Amino acid sequence: MGFGRKRKVVPFRTAGELDAMAAAGAVVGAALVAVRKAAKPGVSTLELDQVAEAVIRDAGAVPSFLGYHGFTGSICSSVNDRVVHGIPSATEILAEGDLVSIDCGAILDGWHGDSAWTFGVGELAAADVDLSDATRLSMEAGIAAMLPDNRLTDVSHAIETGTREAERVHGRHYGIVDGYGGHAIGREMHMDPFLPNEGEPGKGPRLVVGSVLAIEPMLTLGTYETEVLDDKWTVVTTDGSRAAHWEHTVAVTEDGPRILTPRPE
Question: Which InterPro entries does its entry note (predicted)?
C-alpha cells in the first residue's frame, strides 16, 4: 500500500506528550524486568504473564495486549522457535537453555508503551546468545537512525545493515523474519506507517521532531519464513530454528533518539 498523499510525515507528539508516553513506557520496562527475574526453570509462561499484569496494574496502567483482538495475555511469550505472539499458558513450562522473547504493552493516561526483549533461562547455547545480541544490535542501529528529516525506510535500512554487520562479527547467518516489523504508536498501539526491518533507504514518510516508532527486529538462526499455529496467534519459524525479538518505542528529538520504554537497572 503506497503512502501517497495520506501522510507525508510519521505521526509526531509534543514534548509533553512524549513525557506521557515515556511514563507508559517505563511501566512496560518495569514489567519486562520483573518477568525476566521470574523466568526460571519450572515456571510457566502463564506465571510470567501474571507477574507482568501485576506490575502494570500496580502502576495504575492497563495491559494493552489483554483482549486485543481477543488475545488472552498481558504479554506475548515466545519460546525457542516461536517468533512473536506466543500465548501465555499454564502448560508451557520453562526449562534450562530456553530462549525466551517477551513482548509487553501498557496504556497509561491514554498513551501506549510497547517493548520486547529476548533472554535465556539459565545457560544459553552460544548460537542463541549471538542471535539475541544480533537482534538487539539491529534494533540499536534502527534507533540511531531516528533523526529529523530521515525517511521511514532509512530506519528499515539501518536495521538490515545492523543485522548484516552482526553476521560479519559473529560469523553466522541470520534470517530477517519476513512480513513483520515495527509501527507508529501513540494513543493506539498499532498505527500507520508500518516499519519494515529491511529495505532500500530514502522512502516513505519523513521523520520530524516528535515522531514516534516502535522499532522491533525479529531474527532467526535459519529461515526468514514463518507460519501461524492453529491458535491463530503464535508465529513460528517453518524450519524450527530459534528466533529472537527486541523492541523499543522511540521518539525523534532535537537532541537525538529518545527511548520511551526505559528499563529500570
Answer: Creatinase/aminopeptidase-like (IPR036005), Pept_M24 (IPR000994), Pept_M24_MAP (IPR001714), Pept_M24A_MAP1 (IPR002467)
How confident is the model over 113-123, as pLDDT tens digits?
Answer: 999 999 999 99
Is 248 flagged in the annotation as binding? no
254 is in an annotated binding site: no
183 annotated ligand-binding residue: yes
Instruction: Determine contact, residues 33/116, Cβ cutoff 8 Å.
Output: no
Q: Consult the annotation and say whether 216 binds a ligand.
A: yes
| pLDDT digits 0-9 by tens, 233-249 | 999 999 999 999 999 99
Asked if residue 157 belongs to a known ligand binding site, the reply is no
Domain 15-259, CATH = 3.90.230.10
pTM of the shown model:
0.96
Where do the structural domains in the chain lie, given as residue ranges? 15-259
Strand order in the sheet with 212-215: 191-195, 182-184, 212-215, 248-251, 258-259
Report whether 170 belongs to an annotated binding site.
no
